[in-house]
Amino acid sequence: MIGRTSSSSTLRCQGFNLYGVDLSNLDLQNINFKKADLQYCILKGANLTNCSLEYANLEGAILDGATIQCANLTRATLDRASLKGCNFDVKLGTNVSMVGASCREAVFDGSQMNKVNLPVACCKGASFKGCSLREATCAGTDLEGCDFTGSDLHGANLRGANLKDTNFENISGPGLHMSQTLNLTGGQGGRYRDAEQQ
User: Fold this and answer.
1) What single-letter DSSP state applies at residue 169?
2) What is the mean pLDDT of the chain?
3) What is the pTM assigned to this prediction?
């Protein structure tokens, strides 16, 4: 059984098979889940602060309302996972790392993702509706078909990202760093209407 961990200890669950396990609302902070099989796990409301989830497989997992601050999700698989209303925000100067993660068709709607580090990742078809992504780094990320409707992208870095058929309607995004021009008709530039210009 996985119980509450202290703020300083590190419980090692590296490579564990936790397929489909219900870990809802548990305090799992500081646990090492590197390369663990967490497919279809239920992690609603769980505290994953400072967890190592490098190369972990979270395909189809449900993490709605989870706290994921200071976590390392480098090369993790989150395809078709549900992460609605999660808190990825920077804490004590440490950003969440999702470098090279696979997030195909994942749902991040309503999540706090300020300063998240998500470069060279694959997020095809993912939903980021109503997210706060201030100063997030998505440089070189595949965002084809993603939906950012109503999101806050102030100061976000999307340089070199694939924005084909990406929806940016009603975003707020002064200071958005891009190497492509957004337009309203789809195609390579995506669909864009800035809420602050309404």
Assistant:
1) E
2) 89
3) 0.87
**Strand ranges for the chain from DSSP E:** 167-171, 191-194
Enumerate residues 6+ apart whose C-beta is below 8 A from 1.
none
Using an 8 Å Cβ cutoff, are 101 and 77 in contact? Answer: yes
Q: Which residue has the tokens 């090692």?
A: 12
Classify strands 191-194 and 167-171 as parallel, antiparallel or unpaired: parallel
Q: Which residues of 160-177 are buried (b: 16+ CB within 10 A; e: fewer)?
A: ebbbbbbbbbbbbbeebe
> DSSP secondary-structure letter at 19?
T
Average pLDDT over residues 133-148: 97
Q: How deeply is 105 buried, as exposed, middle or buried, from its count of CB atoms within 10 A (0-12, 13-18, 19+)? A: middle
Q: How confident is the model at residue 187 (pLDDT cuts 50, 70, 90)?
A: very low
Instruction: Express each pLDDT in 47-61 by its tens digit.
Output: 999 999 999 999 999
Query: Using one digit for the tens of pLDDT, what is the confidence trace for 93-107?
Result: 789 999 999 999 999
Looking up tokens 């958005």 gives 176
Torsion over CA: 168, 170, 176, 182 (sign): positive
- The residues, ordered by sequence, that sit 6+ positions from 197 with a Cβ below 8 Å of its Cβ are none
User: What whole-number distance in Å separates Cα of residue 170 and Cα of residue 41?
Assistant: 33
